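Chapter summary example.
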Amino acid sequence: MDNSWYSFDVSPIWVFVSLIAALGAAMLLYARKASPWSKSLNVFMGFLRMSAVFLILLLLLNPLLQLNVNRTETPLVIMAVDNSESIGLRSEAANTSDVKAWIDKTRKDLENKYQPIVETLSGRQDTIFFDEKTTNLSSLLKRVEKVYENQNIGAVVLVSDGIINEGQSPAYQTFGFPVFTVGLGDTIPPRDIAIRNVRNNQVAYQGNQFPISILLSQKGYDGLPLAVEVIENGRKIAAQEITLQPGAQEVNFLLDAQSPGIRRLTIAVQEKEGESSYVNNQQDIYIDVIEGKDKILILAPAPHPDINAIRSVLNATSNYETVLYIPGIHERPTEKKFDAIIEHQAFSGHQYGDFESTGKWYIMGSSSNVRNMAQTITYLSISLKGNGKDKVRGAYNSNFSKFKISEELTDRLQNYPPIEVPFGEYQLVGPTEVLLYQQIGSITTERPLLVFFDDGSQKSAVTPGAGIWQWKLQEAGSEENSEFFEELILKTVQYLSIKVNKDRFVVKPRASNYHIGERVFMDTEVYNEIYERAYGNTIQLSITDENGTQTTYEMVDSPVNSSFNLGALEAGVYQFKATTTLGGKGFSETGSFAIRDIQLEGINLTADHNMLRSVAEKNDGLFYPFSLAGQIGEDLISKSYKSIIKTSKETFPLINSIWVILLIAGLLGTEWFLRKYLGAY
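The structure predicted for these 681 residues follows.
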């Protein structure tokens, strides 16, 4: 319920003075004894004059008109529903229809006293479908806390089986509201065979072999034989028969990487009678078979821990082959062309030879000379202030667009030890983009710590300081892995080693792998004979799925639209072919991309009610098994969460109110008309 009122922000003394002055002005004109109209009409016109003069004087005081609004906020009861697929995979305790019916009934019961709202893993919903591919209960509760931060939350009811496969466990968190939990599912491990995990290389090189390691778990089938198969395009390409052991066991395959491209392989285990679910009996993996490794040349005047840190990351993958050349220690490489060159202690004046690459990474250090840098690159200049050094950390630029970094890992930058960089003014020109800025203490500057340059023919990156080996050690020590450091190195080298495309017609998906449910975009670029972007071209695109079904699209590109939006596609590997005509000449582009099905919900089907109990205990709530969930509505109503009244104030000058001006004009106009009509002069 809302109610509002107006008030004036002006001293009552001045209002009284204005009223006396207005009364005096009216009496001066209408207190005369002789008048051609009646006494009552005389009083009325005097009132009109007094009111008009009073309002004019009041406007001269320029008072502030204040609107006060009281809003009564009914307590919210938010039903946070885990609508993941695992809820429907075991129906011993309750099926999804029972859960939906209970939610609808509880909402109606609460409406008489509270305002019930349903939030799911995917957002606020009135109709619930148990189809989410992952479960992140911590994110769900944090979103509720953020979205309803300034509202009157009475309680949150978390409805879940307690099985999480993403994010933190909410059992270790506290929230700013009571959390009641309702336990779905069954806490007794089911009789089941499940693929727990599959480990495989993301990339394999044509002609090589690649391993697949499958972790199986089972309950209730000890000693029975089980067939494990690897299937591609409906054809069995490998198989083993194993004897099931108690607990978990591993099955390994070694397969050949033959034709290049993205391959979708299905790991399938034999279905046994009596299993609680067959969803977890198969899992898809994707292997990108490419023609050869990229060769990375590392140049340095002397050994340095940075070199070992970078090489350890690159050599841990099968994507890269590194060649290290330190004059006086290593022989000069006979090859001249490399996919990327990393120069440590760059701009130190050393002459390594005429090695070629379209991508270079310059890492500066104590031997680097800023004057030499100005002769090598033009996009970054440093105006030194003495010979001083700054100790800086990296600050991630969330607007960086050349490639993606896992933003959930970027907080680790704050724990990285600082490195030394030249002290001075940094200036960037040309087509540059900064991935890491220099952070001094808690202040993020505009100076680059890792900057990229790409003019269409040459790509390079500059890091104006050495010592990044410390980043890897610090992250590994505090996080038990160095995922962010590894991703930073790999993505930087990957970007620099990708060949500059001189094709006049380019069509590529924004990612080579999408998760199921994500929208697929295909970007197009068309160039004229001098490699200027050309628009107004009719582009045809055909997409073919694994079953051979073809879908065609057509678009006329423009500066504001040069991408195909294919929407969300089913899981699988898709081939594409795009064609266009430019200057009477035909161009075509082919390739592939994969849609990955996230198969996490079927792995674990044992409900975790202990976690839900812990969440309720930490947040002043209660735990209810679903069999007793009907009691929760009565218990919440008995809590009698209170409504709160919030007052909002809006202030604006009275002189800005047009209705006051119109009222003054109306009063004076009425008085003038009556005086003229009644014969006054």
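To summarize the output: The chain has a mean pLDDT of 87.
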